[in-house]
Amino acid sequence: xxxxxxxxxxxxxxxxxxxxxxxxxxxxxxxxxxxxxxxxxxxxxxxxxxxxxxxxxxxxxxxxxxxxxxxxxxxxxxxxxxxxxxxxxxxxxxxxxxxxxxxxxxxxxxxxxxxxxxxxxxxxxxxxxxxxxxxxxxxxxxxxxxxxxxxxxxxxxxxxxxxxxxxxxxxxxxxxxxxxxxxxxxxxxxxxxxxxxxxxxxxxxxxxxxxxxxxxxxxxxxxxxxxxxxxxxxxxxxxxxxxxxxxxxxxxxxxxxxxxxxxxxxxxxxxxxxxxx
Length: 277
Prior knowledge:
This protein is α/β, with parallel strands linked by helices and 277 residues long. It is 21% helix and 27% strand. Helix 6 (212-218) runs parallel beside helix 8 (243-255).
């Protein structure tokens, strides 16, 4: 793709849009859409050849449905080497963006600003034995990128992906992803040896129940996995979820002796504060 994208006529819901592609944006074509529940879906779009990002980063996504379209932060769920870009989204009935985004179909156009950023990247963590990826809901998206990247397994001996949701059905995106990765020719062997997937729900009967923060506090998370409690010598952590979950999990990391890091100052845990509505 070239800069000529800025003058193409975007397509939305099968019809040409009267609005031009804003400057500084790519116009991406929807390749695939999968709906998991009434509140969750994933979609894949074309990737511009010149677009570069680090696994775990996010971008700003919008639709060509207004002269000044609404943009929201979306973590790229596909790894940095993928030829397409994948996103995992909630559906908000009155959300300025997702009210319309949830209706996209293959062939439609999605807008994406050209810059990627974010703190949930391997470079923001110091080397360690294991990395904990704490996620709730669509907060699993950046980790969907990282667990598909061989660099993650080069840096850590153990990768623990925790995913907390309200219902069992909301776990399916992550469960399908991990199951497929175990047979993946690029990272399958690494995933089988190093990746631990720990799921929990809060509103239905399930093998593991409760908020991940409560399971950390009680020690049940570590007991279930046969792992020691987190400590600054061996453990690193990444956190992505609701505002309350971010605060509570950050406090727990601090209480376990971990120090918060950033792109310009790698340390023992990082937090992503980009949200979608």
